[in-house]
Design goal:
Layout lengths: L10 E3 L11 H4 L9 H6 L13 E12 L2 E13 L5 E4 H12 L18 H9 L2
Antiparallel strand pairs: 1-4, 2-3, 3-4
Length: about 130
């Protein structure tokens, strides 16, 4: 929860998710446009994931990665609604706004909690190896 109110308003797919999908608020909330508190969401039994149709949606704190220019940036402790079947993540408006503010600041290194070292692979290298080139 970003502001203590839970997932109120519209839910959006996680930034960086496939953009062909629309907001899933109508699918998660049978009363279109109504604001839900976390307790009301947990009481709903008819919620389904738009991606896979799964009914096991739960709130969680997730980690999301974004490209900013030529840097890979990771944001931790992101409140999300997560599908237990396909693991699709949905963020509420307040969360998306906070992520957008971080992006607007350019993800300044001095504000980072830490750094990760990640390996980089090339699919071209693998394809050449498999083709015997």
């Amino acid at each position: 929860m970003v502001d203590g109110r839970g997932f109120g308003g519209r839910l959006r797919p996680a930034p960086g998710a496939r953009r062909r999908r629309r907001s899933v608020a109508a699918d998660l909330n049978p009363k279109r446009g109504a604001q839900l508190t976390m307790d009301q969401e947990q009481q709903q039994t008819t919620r389904t994931c738009e991606q896979c149709g799964g009914a096991e949606l739960h709130t969680d704190q997730v980690r999301s990665a974004f490209w900013h220019d030529d840097r890979l940036v990771v944001i931790e402790d992101v409140p999300a609604l997560v599908c237990g079947s396909c693991h699709e993540q949905f963020f509420d408006d307040a969360t998306v706004m906070l992520i957008d503010l971080l992006r607007g600041e350019g993800f300044p290194p001095e504000k980072a909690r830490g750094e990760l070292r990640v390996p980089v692979f090339s699919l071209q290298d693998r394809m050449r190896r498999n083709n015997g080139s």
